[in-house]
Write a structure and sequence with these properties.
alpha/beta; 30% helix; six-stranded mixed beta sheet; 20% strand; 7 helices; Lysozyme-like; globular; 226 residues; five-stranded antiparallel beta sheet
Length: 226
């Protein structure tokens, strides 16, 4: 799934995503308004409220506002709450009015959820709702329509990906090799010759960056092969 990135600048990390994070699950939200994904992320970045989330999804696609390796303030369970400190937050747009635009946004959110599960090597048991952490009735319209129905959409998206014959998504725990043609790490530092051709294990994935366990360095996805 194509994701447009409009990431919070590092200068606002202290407000929006102050902690590094190794994600453990996905948390689903509804926005409770009728703004687009682009507008949701832009507003989140612009204001100085301690409210933040990783992705906003509408009927047209996905916009990412926070890297998956930073925490967000979305689950309502406090500064050390499990939801806030370990959850990848997805906001589904157009939930105030509902209708076709919300239904399309929800389908896109299910596809995004499935993509995240594949990348991290997780199952559907790693999908939670905001309500699980704070008791708030959120994602409100998704809950009204049936939570198990949403999980079934995620399962269908996972199955569709497998049945399509497409290459399996890279996941944490996979064994990969740094290509001999690689020149620089994702941090733009030079890759030494002893790393090239080295086999290592994926420890974390953040967009097009992959953290390798053995050398504990970030490399670009294009510079590794399974």
């Amino acid at each position: 799934m194509k994701v447009i990135q409009n990431l919070v600048p590092a200068s606002k990390y202290a407000i929006k995503c102050p902690y590094s994070m190794t994600p453990q699950f996905v948390v689903i939200h509804n926005t409770a308004n009728d703004a687009s994904a682009e507008a949701e992320i832009s507003y989140m970045i612009r204001n100085d409220n301690e409210v933040s989330y990783h992705y906003a999804v509408d009927d047209l696609g996905v916009v990412q506002g926070i890297p998956e390796n930073r925490n967000g303030w979305h689950a309502g369970d406090g500064g050390n709450g499990k939801g806030n400190r370990y959850g990848i937050a997805i906001e589904i747009c157009y939930s105030k009015s509902g209708g076709p635009k919300f239904e399309a946004a929800e389908r896109n959110a299910a596809a995004l959820t499935a993509d995240i599960l594949r990348r991290h090597g997780w199952g559907v048991n790693k999908v939670f709702k905001h309500q699980d952490f704070s008791g708030k009735y959120c994602p409100h319209r998704t809950l009204d329509r049936g939570w198990s129905r949403y999980l079934d959409m995620v399962k269908a998206a996972l199955s569709a990906g497998s049945a399509s014959g497409q290459a399996r998504e890279l996941a944490v725990g996979d064994t990969v090799t740094v290509k001999p043609s690689a020149t620089t790490y994702a941090t733009d530092q030079c890759i030494p010759d002893w790393v090239k051709g080295k086999t290592d294990t994926v420890a974390q994935i953040d967009g097009d960056r992959v953290l390798l366990k053995g050398i504990y360095s970030w490399v670009r996805r294009a510079d590794i092969k399974e």
